[in-house]
Amino acid sequence: AAMVQKYQSPVRVYKHPFELIMAAYERRFPTCPLIPMFVASDTVNEYKSEDEAIHVIERRCKLDIDAPRLLKKIAGVDYVYFVQKNSLNRRERTLHIEAYNETFSNRVIINEHCCYTVHPDNEDWTCFEQSASLDIKSFFGFESTVEKIAMKQYTSNIKKGKEIIEYYLKQLEEEGITFVPRWTPPVACKLESSTSHTRRPVSPAINIPDSATKEGLNNKELLNTSSSPSEPTAGTPDDKLDADYIKRYLGDLTPMQESCLIRLRQWLQETHKGKIPKDEHILRFLRARDFNIDKAREILCQSLTWRKQHQVDYILDTWNPPQVLQDYYAGGWHHHDKDGRPLYVLRLGQMDTKGLVRALGEEALLRYVLSINEEGLRRCEENTKVFGRPISSWTCLVDLEGLNMRHLWRPGVKALLRIIEVVEANYPETLGRLLILRAPRVFPVLWTLVSPFIDDNTRKKFLIYAGNDYQGPGGLLDYIDKEIIPDFLGGECMCEVPEGGLVPKSLYRTAEELENEDIKLWTETIYQSASVFKGAPHEVLIQIVDASSVITWDFDVCKGDIVFNIFHSKRAPQPPKKDSLGAHSITSPGGNNIQLIDKVWQLGRDYSMVESPLICKEGESVQGSHVTRWPGFYILQWKFHSMPACATTNLPRVDDVLASLQVSSHKCKVMYYTEVIGSEDFRGSMTSLESSHSGFSQLSAATTSSSQSHSSSMISR
């Protein structure tokens, strides 16, 4: 299989005039002590123009490649020969270098092009650029080995290039040479030359003789390389990345990494006429795919499309987060960590994720998280300027104090997973470190659910502290300065992050309202609503194939009081008849009402109760799970809760009467969501949910079967 590797360098700037750089460059030949593999070079061809402005020299270079002896033996060579053709134009002040391999030229094709030109903004500085391609057609079955050797040799040479020039510049300086005069036309030539030549300094705009001479020489085909490549450089230097800029703003990249960045950026400039992302952001996508340029291009393009669709570029300027978020979202930016990374503090344990999802819907929550990420990008850029070194990611401190079962509410976790997914796809490599503090007992359950969605690279950056461990050695002080540790973690710094707290139920919106939201970044609400009447419960069928699955439920009693039951049956219930809504269908357009349990079925014979009934009052939220013991059919049932008469007098109590009057037409309303999880997904978590004493460290070991307790239903009021 043919592999073509390409390389494109950034622009390297030497703050010395072109002529001095040429004097240094010439000293590399015929051999150079700084390049041990460069054993010898012979001049094969040479041409000088009469006025000495043009000098073309072709050399055959002998290289001793650092390759395994076995490979050299198989290839049958000790040395590799390259042909290098240098075209110097002293008038234009350019040097073009073309090189290609002579050895194995039918198996491997290596082409290299370098040029030294005058800096477009300063004529006393010199720019250097190089590009190359490597195409391995075949090499005795050792193609990939040869590719590795070639890449290794090549990148080490690139690194050396600058050292070599600087070494010879120093040598020249020690010899007292710090200035080399520019080329001037010889006197004899001046008389013959046209008059426009002498007028040149007066009106530099007239560039005629230049191109005329150039064309004249082109006929000799000596300048075929040097005519075009230098032009774009002079025209738009801003389109190119220079090596110093990369080091200062983007970090220490290997030559191949620089090349990937330059090539991907070039491709974007050619194909995306709109706004192209900042260099540091392009680099994040490359890092996320280990500098595989095709994979990085794919995810970057998807992200650019996504940004356009959702107007993400304008989110910071145009979108105002709803008041609920400003009041109840317990997160915010807080100074920076010891590495200069912006620091984001999230008091997840204090935050009512369920309330926020119910009051806002997933969309607004996602938008808010996106605006936080956009702000993060902006802060990285700012800190890069302030600290004088590249900062491309932020640190996130998550305090889990207060985390409870409410945070494990499945739709809340689902919303969290979706948010993580969108952030992972569009803000790769932005999380420098994640410090998770005061992790409680239920945390591992959350972690089991969340971790599969998190990229491996990202996961390596997580540090998790249980209880007060963060105060000990290896804790928070290693990463964050003492002065800015927030007050709620026992520090002295007032932290502006909102306290969080429960979102009032009055702010919740109904499923219908959430469904009618204009902006839809993702799915419809995952809740279904149902109506429950006296004598007409609502039932949901779940078929279980694998004996030990986990049925999870989560519902809110919107109106009235109900009893929740879960039954098991070996026989399949008959599908409900079309008219099962009966007389009630008109009163409940919003919610469905289905009965599955046949009137003739007997409890204990046809079906059995697998959990004790749970009475749920209006306004309550219930989450729970049941580990199934047998395959077959499970039925979840929400039943109208009729008021018990007063035990002593058998007469209804006053408040019961009042309560029953409030329930108009004896109709209750539930919003519910159910899901079945395979036992293998839940096994690690079941024990930690149920045994109250399981310590944080034993969790990984605790995967025992969960027969001792079969359900955990809990109500958060």
TrEMBL record:
Q: Which GO terms describe its biological process?
A: innate immune response; negative regulation of RIG-I signaling pathway
Q: Which InterPro entries match?
A: CRAL-TRIO_dom (IPR001251), CRAL-TRIO_dom_sf (IPR036865), CRAL/TRIO_N_dom (IPR011074), CRAL/TRIO_N_dom_sf (IPR036273), GOLD_dom (IPR009038), GOLD_dom_sf (IPR036598), PRELI/MSF1_dom (IPR006797), SEC14/CRAL-TRIO_domain (IPR051064)
Q: Which UniProt keywords apply?
A: Cytoplasm, Golgi apparatus, Immunity, Innate immunity, Phosphoprotein, Signal transduction inhibitor
Q: Give the GO cellular component terms, alphabetically.
A: cytosol; Golgi apparatus
Where in the numbering of this chain does the GOLD domain appear? 523-676
One family name in Pfam for this protein: CRAL_TRIO_N
- CRAL-TRIO domain residues: 321-497
Q: Where in the cell is it found?
A: Cytoplasm; Golgi apparatus
Q: Which domain of life is it from?
A: Eukaryota
From the UniProt entry, list the residue stretches annotated as the region Disordered. Answer: 192-213
Q: PRELI/MSF1 domain location, by residue?
A: 5-177
Subunit note: Interacts with RIGI (via tandem CARD domain); the interaction is direct. Interacts (via GOLD domain) with SLC18A3; the interaction is direct. Interacts with SLC5A7 (via GOLD domain); the interaction is direct.
* Record's protein name: SEC14-like protein 1
Q: Which organism is it from?
A: Pygoscelis adeliae (Adelie penguin)
Native organism taxonomy: Eukaryota, Metazoa, Chordata, Craniata, Vertebrata
